[in-house]
Amino acid sequence: MSRAWWGPPLDEDQRAVLQLVDDLAGDRLTRVGDDRPDDVDAARVALAEHALWTLGADEAGGGGGADLPTTLVALARLAGTWPALAWASVQAHAAAMVLSAAGPEAAGLLAGIHAGEPVAVCPVDPAEGDTVELTGGRLTGTLDRLDPAGREPHVVVLLDRETAVLVPPDGVVLGPTLRRTGLDGALTVGCRLDAAYPTTRWCTAPG
Asked: What are the average pLDDT values for consecutive 10-residue runs of the chain, which has 207 residues?
């Protein structure tokens, strides 16, 4: 049975999405902490299997193709169930937009994101202690915080409003878990980046 909905009136599709999130919440989205990463992985994959993980991403690229209001209904309900997963889903949507702009060479990576592989999206913010630079054919630096809700994530580094760098898991060294956000299961960490260019993928974000 669906929980009460206190938002705007819903159409038939939106009610179905709401019911699906509620059904999963009662079955496969048991909220856990960072000490149970296998369960976080399973929940992420369950959302992907039910086409909720990237519900609002472009259908032509493998996403759900839902409109913005429907996507926001799903994210709002998921946020009330497990905030860390809702935030991780938002990041997966952002990563899908970046990879879609990268063209056919990113198709395999894009498919992995839609299937629930962990990904973190992080803007470079020097005020937060982030330092990222490209020197000698390598991208190196540190990021103060990632919320990947998974281990061995891809990291999409937003260098500016138009340019993103996709760093594969083997170019990301995660630090210890940071227990400071209240996001159970976000597996919040700082990280160090060290990846060769051009094996690091450079993408131009959509306008």
From this structure: 80 93 87 93 96 94 94 94 95 92 81 96 87 83 93 90 86 86 88 80 60
Considering the entire predicted model, what is its pTM? 0.91
Task: Give me the helix-helix angle, 37-49 and 83-101, nearest 10°.
Answer: 60
Q: Is 197 found in the same domain as 124?
A: yes
Among the candidates 114, 143, 163, a domain finishes at 114
**What six digits make up the tokens of 16?**
């179905």
Task: Identify the three-state secondary structure at position 32.
Answer: coil
CA distance 23 to 74: 12
Answer for the pair 202, 156: CB distance below 8 angstroms, yes or no. no
**What are the DSSP calls for 136-177, one per residue?**
TTEEEEEEEEE--SSSS-EEEEE-SSSEEEEEPGGGEEEEEE
Looking at residue 206, what is its pLDDT? 53
Question: Which one of 114, 133, 158 terminates a domain?
Answer: 114
